[in-house]
Every structure is written in structure tokens, then in C-alpha cells.
Amino acid sequence: MLRSSVVKRFFSRSAPRLDTLILIEAAGGKISPASLSTISAASKIGQPITALVAGTQGAQVAEDAAGIGGVSKVLVAKDSKYDHYLAEELAPLIKDVVGSGYSHLFVAASAVGKSLLPRVGALLDVQPVSDVISVESENTFKRPIYAGNAIATVKALDSTILASIRASAFTPAVMGSSTAAPVEEFTGATTESGNRTQFVSEELVTSERPELAAATRVIAGGRGLKDKETFNKLLEPLASKLNAAVGASRAAVDAGFCDNSLQVGQTGKIVAPELYIAVGISGAIQHLAGMKDSKTIVAINKDPDAAIFNVADIGLVGDLNEVIPELTSKL
């Protein structure tokens, strides 16, 4: 008599290894605050974090990156073609690094990150998640849509997850807060870039004021300041008293009141300082998208119906030419 039997075998499957790669941006040998915020975002996943430093200044930056809390390893790609963060050169490098065993790539949602991430996504055939403001899990994120008027929860289904991080949504990681992580040179780049873009020059706007995107206090001027002379005359003394960065609405930038590097808004810098003072800014939705996450918003405008008052914690209706000098003198 033959007796059939069913044999059940149970195989244990270990969870896939999760490793996050962070691109470190630096200028003048100093790591950008946006990159430090990106590391903080990556730490929410709770997995090993590798920092990638590219360019001939890599050795100096890598030493600083190795001491950032949460970083477990630093990779350095020492080549002059990476010095100016040309996305056409960086994308093939990052594709090769990610292919060496990383499940996540996080970059800052900066000009560099926004130019780079779509190219990496195309090379890896992966859909990036942009402008992340909250990390819910290893594959679920929150990001603003409709100029920040709604928040979408996005679940990435790709095996490799690419994301850009909005720096203002995360507290920057602290440098020098941990034992130095090991530093290794990455020599495994094999993908040819086919780059036909050449770096020609750059013009840097220098200022003694805090950097706009990372400042804890920001004073921004709008069209209500009328002209460049009034913009500087009213805002500069007030910014000096408060040790604040100076920003502007797009209307002020387009009118030539200041350099476009100071623009705050959907098409400019996204800021979330402790204090944001909006002077002569009506409150267009595009501007609000860049600053409404500020901790305390003060609006000064002569129009009591200006939209900026809808998001302001403190509102003052009055003539700028009288209010700002008086406020400056009292400070």
C-alpha cells in the first residue's frame, strides 16, 4: 500500500539590505546646510548612510562629512570634472555608485539636486520622488503639491528609491557629533557620460549676511517698496539689527530691486526660519509656497486685505516708509 504524503518546507528569507547614499554638496570647502538636512531625512529610515563627496576638494570635505552624526561611511570621487556639480557628469557616477549596492539615493532639493535627480532616474529607469518634506517609512514619503496647498503621501514601488529632500523641512545634522566614519575612494565608475556641456564661469553674490536658505531670521521685501533704492534703504538697516538674511518676492526681483538669488517662493528659495518678516509683499500663492512653514510670520503692508495677512501670526497695517524706520530705531 502506497501512502502519499505532503512535505512542507519553510524557507526563511532575510530582509533586503537597506543602504542610503547621500550626495554631499559643498562650496568653498564647506558642506551646505541643505546636505546636512538631507542626512537628517535619511536617518529617519534608520539604515546605514553613506556620504558621497565628488570633486578635487573631496579630501577636505570628506573629513568633515565623516564626523556628521548618522554617517557610517564616506566615499570620495576625486576628479576635476565633478568640481562644479555638472549633472551630466555626476549622473553616470551616481548611477555606478548606486549600482554597487544602495537601495536609496537622497539629494537636496537644490539647483544641483533638481538638475541631477531626473538624469539619474532616467539612467536607472526609476521614478524619483521630489521635494520630500516627511519620511514616513523606507518607501513612503510626503511631498507638497499644488504650490503647497495640499500634501500628497507617495509610496515608491521601485527597488531603488530616489528622492530629493526639501531642506527647510528637516533640522540639519550636527557636524562633529560622532566618531569619524571610514573614508574610501570610489574608483568603480565605468559609465561614460558623453557630456557635451562645459563649465565656463560663475558669478557668486557674496554677503556678510546669513545664507538665505539656512537663516533663522529673514526679512523679505516686495513690490510695495517701489524701487531698488527704497528696498536697500529700508531693509538693510533692519536686517543688520536682527542679523537676518534678506529675501524678496518675485515681483521685487523682476523689478530689479535685488539679485534673483534672494527670491523666495515656488520658483525661488524655500525657507522656514524662526522669524519671517514680509515687507510690502501682497502674498501671492507662489510666494506663500516658499515661506509659509516659517515658525513666526510678521506681515507689514498698507493694504488691510492683502493675502499675506491670512498666513501671518502678526500683522501690521501701515506705511512702510514710516513703520520700518520706526521699527529699526526701536530695535
Structure explained in plain terms:
The protein has 331 residues and is of the alpha/beta class. The strands form 4 sheets. The chain has a 7-stranded parallel sheet with strand order 7-11-6-1-4-5-12. 44% of the residues are buried. It contains 8 helices and 17 strands. It folds into 2 domains: 20-185, HUPs (Rossmann fold, 3-Layer(aba) Sandwich); 212-330, Rossmann fold (3-Layer(aba) Sandwich). Mean pLDDT is 89; it is low at 1-15. One of its GO terms (biological process) is fatty acid beta-oxidation using acyl-CoA dehydrogenase. This is Probable electron transfer flavoprotein subunit alpha. Its main location: mitochondrion.
The biggest beta sheet reads: 7 strands, parallel
Question: What spatial form do the alpha-carbon principal axes imply?
Answer: elongated
Spatial sequence of strands, sheet with the most strands: 7-11-6-1-4-5-12
- Terminal Cα span: 100 Å
Poorly predicted ranges: 1-15
Helix content: 10-25%
> What is the overall pLDDT average?
89
Q: Could you tell me the CATH topology label of the largest domain.
A: Rossmann fold
* Number of helices, counting only DSSP H or I runs of 4 residues or more: 8
- Measured by DSSP, the beta-strand proportion falls in 15-25%
* Proper CATH architecture of the largest domain: 3-Layer(aba) Sandwich
Radius of gyration, in angstroms, nearest whole number: 23 Å
User: What is the C-level CATH assignment of the largest domain?
Assistant: Alpha Beta
CATH homologous superfamily label of the largest domain: HUPs
Structural class: alpha/beta
Beta strand count: 17
* Count of folded domains: 2
Order of helices and strands: EEEHEHEHEHEEEEEEEHEHEHEEH
